[in-house]
Amino acid sequence: MEGDGLHVSQPPLFKGQNYELWKMRMIGFIQYNGIELINIIRNDIPKLIDKSGELLPFESMTEEEKRICQNNAKARHLIICALPEEEMSKVHVMVSAKEMWDTLALTYEGSKEVKRNKLTMLKR
């Protein structure tokens, strides 16, 4: 992979363009770093977040909840490391890796309705 500037230890950097290509590479990178991390991004961690949007106290978590919390932290870290400062500022305060991922997707892909409208226009 060295020829294309990618390194297994570094996530692909998103520069605000070619989101779909970055997303595809990033999913592979996240899976490489732990197949369970992609589940955190897809399924979220709702039972570990209180009503104010903060993580529950670590001391009150079960061992399984702590493992999920650690995987969320790993996934968040990988996403943050793949973003330049201006992109990171949009998502860095979010507790959930899924929320970060979904925010980027909404920003660069649009909502499902917007995608559907684009496909309809392309078909015409």
Largest sheet: none
Number of domains: 1
Structural class: mainly alpha
The rounded Rg comes to 16 Å
Helix content: 55-70%
The poorly predicted ranges are: none
- The count of strands amounts to 0
**Whole-number average pLDDT?**
85
Task: Give the tags.
124 residues, mainly alpha, 6 helices
Describe the protein.
The chain is an all-alpha fold and 124 residues long. It has one domain. Helix content is 60%, strand content 0%. The chain has helices at 19-33, 35-43, 63-81, 85-91, 97-109, 112-123. It is globular. The termini are far apart.
Task: Lay out the secondary structure.
Blueprint: H1 19-33, H2 35-43, H3 63-81, H4 85-91, H5 97-109, H6 112-123
What is the compact description of this entry?
Helix content is 60%, strand content 0%.
